[in-house]
Structure formats: structure tokens, C-alpha cells
Amino acid sequence: MPELPDLEVIREYLTPRLMGQEVSAAEIYRPIVLRNLVGRSAADRLRGRCFAGVARRGKFLLFHLDEGTILAVNPMLAGRLRYGQPLPRRRVRDVLVLGLQDGHELRYHDAKDMGKCYLVRDLGQIPDLADLGPEANDPALTPDLFLARLRRYPGEIKGILTNQRFVAGIGNAYADEICWRAQLYPFRRRSSMTGDELERLYAAMQQVLAESVATLRDRVGEHIDVEVRDFMAVHGKGGQPCFRCGTAISEVKRERRATQFCRTCQPGLMVDR
Ligand SMILES: [Zn+2]
């Protein structure tokens, strides 16, 4: 599932390629995935418009068009954007394909139909966006503000990091990475943590996100439809030795979500559920 660093790098890649480009053709193959809140047919709304900017908010990419319409894409588990020369055919589960004036195309594909796309005039029309907390990597989110916001959330630290109302952009994978970096047990309750531990958590969040953006910038290139995860320390590394101490990485599945961590570097009382 693309998270803040993945989407940030996709945004950086697409911005110079889409800016000012006219949508010369628009095919919507799966209208059920695209919630059109601006009326008329979505294809008619998109065709002939020019891209005026690409932004990101939480796990949404926001494609701004020149007359004020916004195409918002939250890829969730399996949605993928592809930019490049037109593919010769439509693939099963393609949601939409936008042909560009310069001959390239932007394609959105979703193998699980779990992603959410919206065509809106006002971002307030998108339910999940209205409730988002500050961006996890926003410089305005200072340590003091982070700690002040945390006071409202007494629960498990991984659950808090992935709560988009607390901070926007972190999902399962980066939450595991941040907890490992901070040497904190992911199921520790925030209310049991010391000031030092919370400061460590803040620093780890900033470092992991910034470093991951830099890594992905090098690694992703034009393949924005491929999710790069192999550089991670614990996510997806169950059973492999921890970089820091050599202990085999543990994996716990709860509510269909896997958490990976190092029992030695991130000590805590194992919770069985
Ligand atoms: Zn370790």
C-alpha cells in the first residue's frame, strides 16, 4: 500500500511530466471506482482539461485540473498509477486511462478495487480527507506540537502512528520501520511511555520518512507502478536477522494486519490476541 514516501516520490516524478499537459483522451473503464461528484460524465469532465498541479495529502494524490476540478486518488492496498507510452491494450482492472497531448498516458489500475478515486471541485467533498491530521513530515509539526497532539491518544503506539487523524501519510509498513528505528515495542501504550521515548519516536518518524523519500527517489525512477520495499529494516523481513542485533525479526498478525519488529531491540510484553 503506497504511503507518504511512495506517494511523495510519485508526485515528484509526475509533476514536471503532467504540468500543462492537456488530457486529449479519457477512458473510464470502471466507473464504480471513480466517484464523480461534479456531474456530467467523468470522461467529459477530464477531456480537454490541462493539468495545473500534482499535490499529495495523506495517502491521496491530488491532480489539479485547470478549471478547478480535482482528480483525487487514494490507491489503498493495490491501486497503481502508471505513466508512459500508451499500452497496446486495456488490462483487466484498469480503472481509467488518460491520454496526454504529448503522446504519453496516465493509467490507474486497481487489482482489488479497494482504492478510492474522486472527481471533485472541493476537497471538502472527500470524507476521508476532511479529517486528516497534519502531514507526518510537515516541518510545522514540531516536537512540541507532536507531543501535544499525542496526549489525546493513549493507545498502542503503532495504532496511533497509522491513525490518519493523528498524522497523515503513515501506514502499516512505515509504522513498523519507525517503531524499529525508535527501538520501541509497537504495541506499547503511549500512556506508558516516557518523555524520552516519545521524543525518540518523533525523531525516528522524521528520519525514516526523509531517508525513505531519498532512497525511493533513487530507486523508483520511471517505474512508479512498482512498490519498492526491499530497503526496509523490518517490514516484510519476518524471520530474517535484525540489522542492529541479529535476532530473527518477529511477525505478529492481528486483525489481518502484520506487524514486524525485533524482540531484542524493541522489548515489550507480548500481547496474545
Ligand atoms: Zn534487533
Written overview of the protein:
This protein is of the alpha+beta class and 273 residues long. The protein folds into two domains: 4-130, MutM-like, N-terminal (N-terminal domain of MutM-like DNA repair proteins, Alpha-Beta Barrel); 143-261, Orthogonal Bundle (Helicase, Ruva Protein, domain 3). It has helices at residues 4-18, 42-46, 127-130, 143-150, 157-161, 172-181, 195-220, and strands at 23-28, 34-36, 51-57, 60-65, 70-74, 79-84, 94-100, 105-110, 116-120, 250-254, 257-261. A five-stranded mixed β-sheet has the order 2-9-5-4-3, covered by helices on one side. A four-stranded antiparallel β-sheet has the order 1-7-8-6. The protein has a two-stranded antiparallel sheet with strand order 10-11. Helix 1 runs parallel beside helix 7 and helix 6 (172-181) crosses helix 7 (195-220). Zinc ion is lined by residues 242, 244-245, 247, 262, 264-265.
Task: Please name the defining characteristics of this protein.
four-stranded antiparallel beta sheet, binds zinc ion, 27% helix, 273 residues, N-terminal domain of MutM-like DNA repair proteins, Helicase, Ruva Protein, domain 3, five-stranded mixed beta sheet
